[in-house]
Design goal:
Number of helices: 13
Bound molecules: zinc ion
Distance between the termini: 46 Å
Order of helices and strands: HHHHHEHEEEHHHHHHH
Number of domains: 1
Shape: elongated
Number of strands: 4
Strand content: under 5%
Structural class: mainly alpha
Strand order of the largest sheet: 1-2-4-3
């Protein structure tokens, strides 16, 4: 999965960005192949059925305990197996390319925190799914979608106040001048003022980022301290305007609705596929937790096929937010220079291969965003 060779005139950072992207693409492919291999081996060796039987012998009719312990052991085992790849991909590569500022111990502590979070969420989520499979074998996929939406709403609401603060310091922006300018920008754009917060990325990474996070009362704009430091006032306001664009367009709700539609389709496909598959592999019903690898296989394959579609939708929302930013600040200049800085700082390939952008990019490439911003500026009324 190597990218096209860069033209000889490409600056050093573009070459480094291409190498960095190639490493990530290879890791993506490797994770995918290993995941499918592990799921297949777990099913075909009978290890999954054996664990389920063992837990049933131990807990008898306490199926909720059987399912809970099965998912906990299985998800933990998988994470342990993938640990070398996580360490290499998320730490070694980041250090090698000069993007991470963390010590190995600091990284490991963050890894443990996110592992704990994933295990907790995974066990709750799959316990609910298997309870639904048992109680409502015909319509479980519909209820599973409802649970998915509930999960998404709770997690999105909690993200900026509970989850993100586990990893980064998040505090109200202390720059009174910038807060006033942000409020002014929001009023001029006809958007109700939202909180602007400083997102403490600097102690862990060299990369910069900004985001609209939360839902309802927890909704807020996060500006990385790495961005506040190295960017001009105009560039920061252009980025703020982009985030206000997401806010104005209701993009968090839109993306959640799109996610719910895909989840419904995914669960429905799994429902249809599982009926036949469980019989082939000798399980009594899809509600038998021993058949977990089959459910994971269906959902994993579906999410892989759905990825380009959800990415395409996300890219459209990003371009709409860029358009909004250019119209609000009435110029493309500050957004273009901010995007250019972000590309250098985050080691982004400015013009990736079109098929890679189509498959894997949740944001349009920097080159595409810059071209579009200039086109929107050219169409501004004078
Ligand atoms: Zn955005």
């Amino acid at each position: 999965m190597s990218a096209e060779p860069a033209p000889p005139s490409a600056p050093d950072d573009e070459l480094r960005a291409r190498k960095y992207e190639a490493v990530h693409n290879r890791l993506f492919l490797l994770r995918l192949v290993i995941t499918l291999g592990v799921v297949a081996a777990y099913l075909l060796t009978g290890a999954s059925a054996e664990l389920a039987d063992g837990l049933r012998t131990r807990f008898g009719r306490g199926w909720l305990l059987v399912n809970g312990f099965y998912t906990l052991i299985t998800l933990f085992g998988f994470s342990a197996l993938m640990f070398p790849l996580s360490y290499y991909g998320d730490y070694v590569v980041e250090r090698r390319y000069g993007l991470s500022r963390q010590s190995p111990e600091g990284w490991f502590l963050d890894y443990l925190k996110s592992l704990g979070l994933e295990l907790m969420l995974g066990v709750v989520f799959f316990s609910v799914i298997y309870a639904l499979l048992r109680w409502l074998p015909g319509s479980w996929w519909l209820w599973a979608t409802a649970c998915y939406v509930l999960f998404a709403v709770v997690l999105t609401s909690l993200a900026p106040v509970v989850i993100l603060p586990l990893f980064h310091k998040i505090e109200p922006l202390d720059n009174a001048e910038l807060v006033a300018a942000a409020g002014d920008l929001a009023r001029r754009a006809g958007v109700r003022v939202v909180g602007v917060f400083r997102w403490g990325l600097e102690e862990k990474t060299e990369t910069a980022n900004a985001a609209l996070a939360g839902l309802g009362r927890t909704r807020r704009i996060l500006l990385g301290d790495t961005l506040l430091k190295g960017y001009s006032r105009e560039e920061i306001l252009a980025i703020l305007a982009h985030e206000l664009g997401h806010y104005r367009h209701g993009d968090i709700a839109r993306l959640m609705a799109a996610g719910a539609a895909l989840a419904a389709l995914g669960f429905f496909v799994a429902q249809a596929a599982l009926k036949g598959l469980v019989a082939v592999f000798g399980f009594a019903s899809p509600a038998d937790i021993g058949s977990f690898p089959l459910l994971v296989f269906c959902l994993f394959l579906f999410s892989l096929i759905a990825l380009p579609f959800s990415n395409a939708y996300s890219r459209r929302r990003e371009l709409a937010a860029d358009d909004y930013a250019v119209r609000t600040v009435e110029s493309a200049g500050p957004l273009v220079s901010a995007l250019d800085k972000l590309a250098s700082q985050n080691l982004a390939v400015r013009r990736p291969a079109a098929w890679l952008e189509f498959l894997l990019y949740s944001h349009p490439s920097i080159a595409r965003r810059i071209e579009r911003a200039r086109a929107v500026e050219a169409a501004l009324p004078r």
